[in-house]
Amino acid sequence: MTDKEAKAFYNAAAWKHKRMQILERDHYECQDCRKRLKDAVAAGHILQGEDRKIRRAEEVHHIVELKEHPELGLEDDNLISLCVKCHNLRHGRTPRRFQRKKKLASKERW
Ligand SMILES: [Zn+2]
Ligand SMILES: [Zn+2]
């Protein structure tokens, strides 16, 4: 699947509908936050601060990448609700905060 095809997929009504369905299925709770909490309790760890919370899921992630397996793009089993932070972690992306800082830094030259 090309970038262009992926973009078209995310813009399609079928995806928007499926995305809402998955968020509802997961009760708008980040499934990675939930797992982190569950694992910690099972291991007898006490979590502090931010880590004690299950953040609100705002994004739906493809477990098997869409570009690799477009046919799984709308499969319930391949979709998981995540908060922005956990979603970035899954993709190894830099948090938005850092990107914004960079932009500001270049502005300061003027
Ligand atoms: Zn999360
Ligand atoms: Zn993702």
TrEMBL record:
HNH nuclease domain: from which residue to which, for each copy?
Answer: 36-88
Q: Which GO terms describe its molecular function?
A: endonuclease activity; hydrolase activity; nucleic acid binding; zinc ion binding
Top-rank lineage group of the source organism: Bacteria
Specify one Pfam family. HNH
Tell me which InterPro entries the record gives.
Answer: HNH, HNH_nuc
| This protein's UniProt keywords | Endonuclease, Hydrolase, Nuclease
Query: What family does this belong to?
Result: Belongs to the HNH nuclease family.
Q: What is this protein called?
A: Putative HNH nuclease YajD
Q: Which organism is it from?
A: Mediterraneibacter faecis
